[in-house]
Amino acid sequence: MNLDYLNNLAQSIDPLNAEYILKDEDILGTYRVMGRFLKEGRKGIALDILKDLKRKITVFKDQRLLPSNVKVGDGVTVNLWTDRYAATIVKITRCSLTVRRDRAILDPDWKPEWIPGGFSAHCINNDEQMYIAYEPDEKGTVYTIRWSDKYQRYGRPGNLTLSKGRHEFYDYNF
User: Which residues contact 59 (CB under 8 A, 6 or more apart)?
Assistant: First the structure.
């Protein structure tokens, strides 16, 4: 399918991130579905999908951590396997971000609830944990993570990756 229309649409809505938008699998998939409905003559459905596509392009930069929208001091999340660490960007190069882990303060009202199971017990309210604040930690672990053109993100699946915003999470069940 010809990507000229999608390219023009991305350039008109978010020219700074158009190159990343054109490589996003979710956006490309939505565009292909729209094209299939157009080809079948189902213009009403194709127009509804076009509205969804425009919405996805409009919010793209707000939801993704991209080389075009990072700056020193921004909060990010280091995604491990099941745990996530809140961090702050401390250095930016053309192809990598260096971040330092923040101190995350767990809500003192939240307590893990355990039931017997697994190797010893299972935390049944794991997903309800809340962090009430994040503070810089000069002694926090420093990570440098490279931009992956293949995966269109900082890091690669199976390794550490970064995402936008601070979202600490400790998996009590792993």
Answer: none
Any long-range contacts for 38-42 (C-beta under 8 Å, 24+ apart)?
A: none
Of 156, 140, 158, 159, the closest CA to residue 86 belongs to 140
Determine the Cα–Cα distance for residues 59 and 100; give it in Å rounded to an integer. Answer: 27
What's the rounded Cα separation, in Å, for the pair 78 and 87?
A: 7
**pLDDT over threshold 70, residue 39:** yes
Residue type, 35: G
Whether the Cβ atoms of residue 56 and residue 13 lie closer than 8 Å to each other: no
- Evaluate if pTM is beyond 0.85: no
**Which structure tokens are listed for 135?**
């503070």
- What percentage of the chain's residues is helix, strand, coil (to nearest 5)? 35, 30, 35
- The predicted-structure confidence for 111-153, as pLDDT tens digits, reads as follows 989 998 767 788 889 999 999 999 999 999 999 999 999 999 9
Distance, CA of 18 to CA of 58 (rounded, Å): 11
Q: Quick one: tokens of 59?
A: 């919010």
Token representation of residue 111: 């307590």
pLDDT at 1: 65
